Amino acid sequence: MKSFIYIEPSKEGIDSLTKQIALKISKIPVEVRGPLRGISIGNGLDGKESQLSGLFDELIRVEVPSGDELNTELISNILTDVLQESGPAMLFLGFTHLGMEVGPAVGWRLQIPTITSCIDFDWTGGDANVKRPIVGGKLLVSFSVKSERGMVISVQKGAWEDEVSCESVSDSVPVTRLPWRNSWAAEKTQWIGISEESLEGEEDITKAEILVSVGRGLGGPENLPIVKELAEKLGGIVSCSRPVVDLGWLPPSRQVGISGKSVSPVIYLALGISGQSNHLAGMDGSKIIIAVNKDPLAPIFNVANFGVVDDILEFVPGLLDQIKQKQGY
Amino acid sequence: MRAAVCCKGVSIDTTLESVHIVNGDIQFKGSEFYINEFDSYALEAAMALKNKYGIETFALCLGPLRVQEVLYFAIAKEVNHVLRIDGDTNRPELISSGLIPALMEIGPQIILVGVQSEDWMGGEVGVYIAQALNMSLAFAVVEISELTDKSIRIKKELGGGRLAEIILKLPAVLCVQSGIEPLRYVSAARRQKARKTPVKMGSRLNIEEVKQKISGMMAYEAREVSVPPKSSRAEMITGERSEVASKLLEIIGKSV
């Protein structure tokens, strides 16, 4: 068996999720997992090879035309070939936008078990035990997965953030360069360009120390003014979960989550946010998470430091009154 | 030109007691199902294409009789044709395999699927359909800007606030992100009228036959469904509202 980890392109070189995956998988005995190989597509890790130390036994660096590093059709073609040519192999990758498209594509092409959004993985040889959330994280499902033909496992952000380094993986990591093959070229899709959202005129939620974040529990845009006032009184900024943006109550620049921004404020005050994993992935770096939700079973309470079971439309006015009293209003 | 929307019925009841493991599969045993929200956005995107380009639209749903409500909703949205494939599974490999024969018979140039389901939350079905039918694929589509008889131009999310603009050759599978189009309101009267429309049935999903055909992918089984353990660090603050508010302000004040 061989084990591969797809290293998503990142400004940091190797992003934190990839590191966590590598640290977790490196703890599986090498006689079970085989050598642990990172796959990097493009030149994103050039000059950053020192980051590989302690994470992988080998790096496979694949040459691709410049600008194609995020082309998912091309990435799927490459990963399929690398795994197929290696024999039975495990592929680990992040449950990100890119991973959600590429992981199942590779799994289908190779006809191997594919488990997405994993939060736990236990494998000592034989069948692997894998856990993933369902119904917004309210429940977990445990799977038994046969490993003989390999498998594809995508990992949720934050699932393995407590992993620490282990000594079984090499310090000095050899790099194998795979030259470009024309057979990998994307034939069905043509990439025009990549754009980032402009923050002109908008506050940057990634820089805030305090975020007052609202979800569907807000009820409607007519309830925004009181939340904005609360944020202002606390010295923070308003942010939100995806449904609030989809409903047009706040602009996309305020969205926290996989599709939006990743934030790491000192205080994340989650008001009426259920805590779906796509949202948690964007705010689990917060120092203190305070959740207010009228549903005592809301998944947000599984990650919060402090929780209040209450209707935010009843609770927030009282909170605001207390602040005004303290501030002498 | 034809567009097919693959919709899933999700159960209103998502308690532990309502989820059963049947032959390594997950089944929700609630009696009331509604359209997966992400698929409702896929449906809305399809209707926008119909209105703009005059495309013939199909809505498909794989599931038992109780999910037919999803198709009545699609009819109320004025989709041209609906089709149900009988079967009860939440495994994305089986769902895709059950939809594929019907899709091949329809022959759409565009297949739209919600980016994930609210219950399984994996996002695999659209990807599997694209692989099986050798179609172009775009995941997390937030905008459809142009359609010709050979290609479709879209924007898709890359995460972290970034978007990629792509032209896909037809036929294509679009895994549609929420918010692509505003969801139009459908009145109760229209939904009631839609219930009088007969729903065409496709070939029943033969689970054992599909398991044989894609046995490599099926080499896993659900063993247990459980409630996540409560985080040991969470402290629930209780008491009178004013006391709770005061405690929260104290926590915030000490931390910043």
Structure described in brief:
Chain A is an alpha/beta fold. Chain A contains 8 helices and 16 strands. In chain A, 51% of the residues are buried.
Q: Count of DSSP helices of chain B?
A: 7
CATH fold descriptor of chain B: Rossmann fold
Whole-number total of structural domains of chain A: 2
Low-confidence stretches of chain A: none
Query: Helices and strands of chain A, in N-to-C order?
Result: EHHEEHEHEEEEEEEEHEHEHEEH
**What would the average pLDDT of chain B be, to the nearest integer?**
95
Largest sheet of chain A: 7 strands, parallel
- Overall body shape of chain A: elongated
Note the quaternary state here: heterodimer
Q: Care to count the β-strands of chain A?
A: 16
CATH architecture of the largest domain in chain A: 3-Layer(aba) Sandwich
Secondary-structure-based class of chain A equals alpha/beta
Strand content of chain A: 25-35%
Let me know the CATH homologous superfamily of chain B: HUPs
| Rg value of chain B | 21 Å
Q: Could you give the distance between the termini of chain B?
A: 58 Å
**Level-1 CATH class name of chain B:** Alpha Beta
Q: Any overview of this molecule?
A:
The complex is a heterodimer of chains A (329) and B (256). By secondary structure, chain A is an alpha/beta fold. Chain A has 2 domains: 2-184, HUPs (Rossmann fold); 205-326, 3-Layer(aba) Sandwich (Rossmann fold), CATH 3.40.50.1220. Helix content of chain A is 25%, strand content 26%. Chain A contains 8 helices and 16 strands. A 7-stranded parallel beta sheet of chain A has the order 5-9-4-1-2-3-10, with helices on both faces. Chain A has a 5-stranded parallel beta sheet with strand order 13-12-14-15-16. In chain A, strand 7 (128-134) and strand 8 (139-145) form a beta hairpin. The longest helix of chain A has 15 residues, at 72-86. The model of chain A has no long low-confidence stretch (mean pLDDT 91). Chain B has helices at 37-53, 68-76, 92-106, 125-133, 188-194, 207-213, 241-255, and strands at residues 2-7, 9-11, 19-22, 25-28, 33-35, 56-62, 81-85, 110-114, 136-147, 151-159, 162-169, 172-176, 200-201, 220-226, 235-236. Chain B has a single domain, classed as Rossmann fold (3-Layer(aba) Sandwich), CATH 3.40.50. A 9-stranded mixed beta sheet of chain B has the order 11-10-9-12-8-1-6-7-13, sandwiched between helices. A two-stranded antiparallel sheet of chain B has the order 2-5. Chain B is globular and about 60 Å long. In chain B, helix 2 packs across helix 5 (188-194) and helix 3 (92-106) crosses helix 4 (125-133). With 256 residues, chain B is of the alpha/beta class. Chains A and B meet through helix 4, strand 5, strand 7, strand 8 and strand 11 of A and helix 4, strand 9, strand 10, strand 11 and strand 14 of B.
